[in-house]
């Protein structure tokens, strides 16, 4: 086994790339990987290190081709909120607005139901979804990229990450290692103080546009309950509230989720026209995604378009077609 470098000080791009290559190829001992990832997490990863890890993941992932303008909406997870699946619903609504969405996701790690769990409860065959992802993205404008299927190199790291017991750099790299190689993305990070670092990584990775968001609760999405921080590539941080977008506030408890069946039922009610906190949270985050996609210029226009996709039944029809594909 090869010895990993000392990670107590920031790594250069070349050293970081070599280290992550060794880790992903199984050429380092488990104890060394655990120590390396723990030290990185404790001192906090740099933009250069995150970008290097993403590049090495991309070299080893099972990629798909995507239409021009494809985006993704996802978060790093780990906010501990156990909320309903916001980004999953946003993906469906945004795709119903004729913006192709390659939704990257996994089963729950720190919550009761991740994107994969909820979509499975709605009727999506996860194995088939991976096999048909490129086709559904081309035909319907949406697909689900199950991380376990598209990043086989991460499989051997699961026990090590579990033993560490807290988030590692591989939680941060997940959104940016989208197998469709999207260049535009809405990414939730449950740490407002880390948005600029993450934005720096995306800039190094050559993104066309990205919006990094964090709710103060903390949440890895825009908050419908309070204030959120936003960093867009090339811009300084701004702070917004639901009122900024013309939406009312809702208690964070109103977004509390449950298991996969519970969250799937809530998503179904949402697409059937249900109102309340879940709808408004989805509208707020969908508006952000539509801005990143370049189809709207402001919050109000984005919310209007997203609401229309729900109220006209477009999002519900898209979900049904996707589940039947």
Automatic annotation (TrEMBL):
It catalyses: N-(5-phospho-beta-D-ribosyl)anthranilate + diphosphate = 5-phospho-alpha-D-ribose 1-diphosphate + anthranilate. Gene3D superfamilies: Nucleoside phosphorylase/phosphoribosyltransferase catalytic domain, Transferase, Pyrimidine Nucleoside Phosphorylase, Chain C. It comes from the Bacteria. Mg(2+) 1 binds at residues 87, 221. It holds the Pfam family Glycos_trans_3N. 5-phospho-alpha-D-ribose 1-diphosphate binds at residues 75, 78-79, 83, 85-88, 103-111, 115. Pathway: Amino-acid biosynthesis; L-tryptophan biosynthesis; L-tryptophan from chorismate: step 2/5. Residues 70-315 form the Glycosyl transferase family domain. Anthranilate 2 binds at residue 161. Keywords: Amino-acid biosynthesis, Aromatic amino acid biosynthesis, Glycosyltransferase, Magnesium, Metal-binding, Transferase, Tryptophan biosynthesis. One of its GO terms (cellular component) is cytosol. InterPro entries: Anthranilate_Pribosyl_Tfrase, Glycosyl_Trfase_fam3, Glycosyl_Trfase_fam3_N_dom, Nuc_phospho_transferase. Residues 10-60 form the Glycosyl transferase family 3 N-terminal domain. Catalyzes the transfer of the phosphoribosyl group of 5-phosphorylribose-1-pyrophosphate (PRPP) to anthranilate to yield N-(5'-phosphoribosyl)-anthranilate (PRA). This is Anthranilate phosphoribosyltransferase. It comes from Sphingorhabdus profundilacus.
């Amino acid at each position: 086994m090869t010895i990993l470098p000392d990670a107590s000080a920031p790594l250069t791009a070349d050293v970081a790339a070599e280290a992550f290559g060794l880790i992903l190829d199984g050429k380092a001992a488990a104890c060394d990987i655990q120590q390396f990832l723990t030290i990185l997490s404790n001192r906090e990863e740099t933009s250069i290190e995150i970008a290097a890890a993403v590049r090495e993941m991309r070299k080893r992932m099972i990629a798909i081709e995507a239409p021009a303008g494809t985006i993704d909406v996802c978060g790093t997870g780990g906010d501990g909120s156990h909320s309903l699946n916001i980004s999953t619903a946003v993906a469906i609504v945004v795709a119903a607005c004729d913006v192709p969405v390659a939704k990257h996701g996994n089963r729950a790690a720190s919550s009761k139901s991740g994107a994969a769990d909820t979509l499975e409860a709605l009727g999506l065959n996860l194995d088939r979804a991976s096999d048909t992802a490129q086709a559904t993205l081309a035909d319907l404008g949406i697909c689900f990229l199950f991380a376990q299927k598209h990043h086989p190199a991460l499989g051997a790291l699961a026990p090590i990450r579990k033993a560490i017991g807290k988030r590692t750099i591989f939680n941060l790299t997940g959104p940016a290692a989208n197998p469709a190689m999207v260049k535009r993305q809405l990414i939730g990070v449950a740490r407002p103080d880390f948005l600029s670092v993450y934005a720096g990584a995306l800039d190094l990775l050559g993104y066309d546009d990205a919006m990094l968001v964090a709710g103060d609760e903390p949440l890895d999405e825009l908050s419908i309950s309070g204030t959120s921080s936003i960093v867009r590539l090339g811009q300084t941080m701004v702070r917004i509230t639901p009122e900024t977008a013309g939406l009312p506030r809702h208690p964070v408890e109103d977004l509390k989720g449950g298991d996969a069946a519970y969250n799937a039922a809530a998503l179904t009610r949402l697409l059937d026209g249900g109102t309340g906190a879940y709808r408004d949270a989805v509208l707020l985050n969908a508006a952000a995604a539509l801005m990143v996609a370049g189809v709207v210029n402001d919050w109000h226009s984005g919310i209007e378009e997203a609401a229309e996709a729900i109220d006209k039944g477009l999002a519900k029809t898209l979900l049904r077609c996707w589940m039947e594909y």
